[in-house]
Design a protein that fits this description.
Blueprint (H helix, E strand, L loop, with lengths): L2 H13 L3 H8 L5 H22 L3 H6 L1 H22 L5 H8 L2 H12 L8 H23 L5 H24 L5 H29 L4 H29 L1 H4 L2 H16 L6 H18 L4
Helix pairs in contact: 1-11, 1-13, 2-6, 2-11, 3-5, 3-10, 3-11, 5-9, 5-10, 6-9, 6-13, 7-8, 7-9, 7-14, 8-14, 10-11
């Protein structure tokens, strides 16, 4: 990996590791719809001047069906699943479960992008180990009463969607600048969630959310959406969509560290057993084997 690729890799990993912390701070005071709407409205406001200056918005509008598909798969679905799940699971666990993205990405690369290297025995071994890691993580913590398995699998489903979106974008939106794609996608997401957010806003305002909850909404919009997506698209151009999904390893470390350090979240037995298997499995599943 080049120096530029490494810098982008680490930057995206940090920018997408902190959302779980900010969501956890905001979710006691705001509904998932409000959090997502605020996130995309702020993100679009930051990115729209760049899109206009680069004249990137019109090409994105011409490809609106695929931009809408990207918005639904990358933002609408996963963000609702994760934001709702964090009412029931810790931010560290959510970050860990999203670390399964790389081996879902390997499966998608085989069936939809024609990457036959997935058939390599080491890749298949990695996929198997990774799935065992997720199974043990969910199973152990569920048996101990630490988590509700329904919400754990909701986060896993978001990981599947996260794996699909960049693969689709790398093929269907390769000719469209991310500077135009991202703000348009965020506006689409805002239109979807705004009615529900507006309906819940009066009761949320009556609860008088603290400053840290408002600051979390701002950080989700600027850092975790606008900046992070621009960096991620640049990373995909630099190292490819499949390898770019490996940033979820950095995400996991950041999410766990913030959750344990600032939210007093526990490190459970399921995490201790499952995390190494997920990391090892994903490493084998996403490497190029001769």
């Amino acid at each position: 990996m080049s120096r530029k690729g490494l810098i982008l890799f680490l930057a995206v990993g940090i920018a997408w590791g902190v959302p779980y912390f900010f969501i956890r701070v905001a979710v006691p005071y705001f509904s998932p719809a409000t959090i997502i709407t605020a996130r995309v409205v702020i993100g679009a406001a930051v990115l729209m001047p760049l899109a206009i200056r680069q004249k990137a918005l019109l090409p994105a509008i011409k490809s609106w069906p695929w931009v809408l598909a990207f918005a639904l798969i990358e933002m609408v679905g996963p963000w609702w699943l994760i934001t709702s799940a964090e009412r029931h699971v810790s931010s560290g666990l959510a970050g860990l479960l999203v670390a399964t993205v790389p081996f879902f990405g390997a499966i998608i690369a085989y069936f939809f992008l024609g990457d036959k290297s997935v058939k390599h025995p080491k890749t298949l071994f990695g996929l198997l180990v990774g799935f065992i890691g997720v199974f043990l993580l969910v199973g152990i913590d569920s048996l101990q009463g630490n988590t509700d398995p329904i919400w754990v699998w909701a986060v896993v489903l978001s990981a599947v969607l996260y794996a699909i979106a960049p693969a689709m974008a790398s093929v269907k939106l390769a000719h469209v600048s991310s500077a135009g794609t991202l703000p348009l996608a965020m506006l689409m997401v805002a239109l979807i969630y705004a009615p529900s957010a507006i309906a819940s806003l009066p009761s949320e305002m009556a609860a008088n959310p603290p400053l840290e909850a408002w600051a979390s909404l701002a950080a989700l919009g600027v850092v975790c959406s606008a900046v992070a997506f621009l960096l991620f698209f640049a990373l995909m151009r630099e190292i490819g969509s499949a390898r770019a999904t490996l940033v979820t390893y950095v995400n996991t470390v950041v999410a766990l560290a913030l959750g344990v350090s600032f939210l007093a979240e526990p490190i459970t037995l399921g995490m201790i057993v499952g995390l190494p298997l997920v990391v090892v499995g994903s490493w084998f599943a996403t490497r190029r084997h001769a």
